[in-house]
Design brief:
The chain has about 220 residues and is of the alpha/beta class. It contains ten helices and seven strands. The longest helix has 17 residues, at about 65-80.
Length: about 220
């Protein structure tokens, strides 16, 4: 078995439980434009494909593209102003990231969150335990586009075969496939484990303790 030299993590629903702050910011933006607020569980079901798709889903695809862009900008501002009130790392994740680094493994985060939010958020919660963060800077950056993933590995001089991608969403499964990277789904996030199994063919780990065992067996 190819030993892994890098672990790439998704952000929302994988290393951080962010849904409460995302939902609050989105609802403030929706209300400002006259749209009905959504429950946290509804917002959770809309995640995975970036801000613009999140807004489209939250408006039930009833808003024109120009309106969705305005709501997205309002949402981005609201979220940037209050990203930390209710967001917490999943229990055991901070220590896991530190321990991977101590074992000589590169740790990265690849997310469909706006890079302007993702970078300070990772630094806020994990400090220097993460070696590289790649969020969305343009609409073409988001997963399942593999470019951010492959570019980060190339910077580190690590091949896709020497990496594993950890995520809770379907875009994570797709980007791992597009990058020729092994996928390790997590079932404690925002996508049901049976859906992850169906789409990836790999059973999702149930918690961070199991995730730790699986990762350290690969490095």
């Amino acid at each position: 078995m190819q030993k892994k030299k890098a672990v790439l993590f998704d952000l929302d629903g994988t290393v951080l439980d962010t849904i409460a702050d995302i939902a609050a910011a989105l609802n403030r933006a929706l209300s400002a434009f006259g749209f009905k607020e959504k429950s946290v569980s509804q917002v959770q079901s809309y995640l995975g494909n970036g801000m613009l798709m999140l807004v489209r889903r939250a408006t039930d695809f009833a808003a024109e593209d120009s309106m969705c862009l305005q709501i997205r900008e309002a949402f981005a501002k609201e979220y940037a102003n209050d990203m930390y009130s209710n967001t917490v790392p999943y229990q055991g994740v901070p220590q896991l990231l530190c321990d991977l680094g101590a074992a000589g493994v590169k740790v990265g985060v690849i997310t469909n969150k706006d890079h302007r939010c993702a970078l300070p958020m990772i630094e806020h919660y994990f400090g220097n335990a993460v070696d590289g963060v790649r969020g969305v800077k343009t609409d073409t950056d988001r997963k399942p586009n593999p470019q951010n993933t492959l570019n980060l590995l190339e910077e580190w001089g690590i091949s896709p075969a020497e990496a594993v991608f950890v995520g809770d969403g379907l875009p994570d499964i797709e980007v791992a496939k597009n990058s020729n990277i092994e996928i390790l789904p997590v079932g404690y996030g925002y996508t049901a484990p049976d859906i992850l199994l169906e789409k990836s063919g790999v059973r999702a780990v149930s918690d961070v303790k199991e995730l730790r065992r699986e990762l350290f067996a690969k490095i």
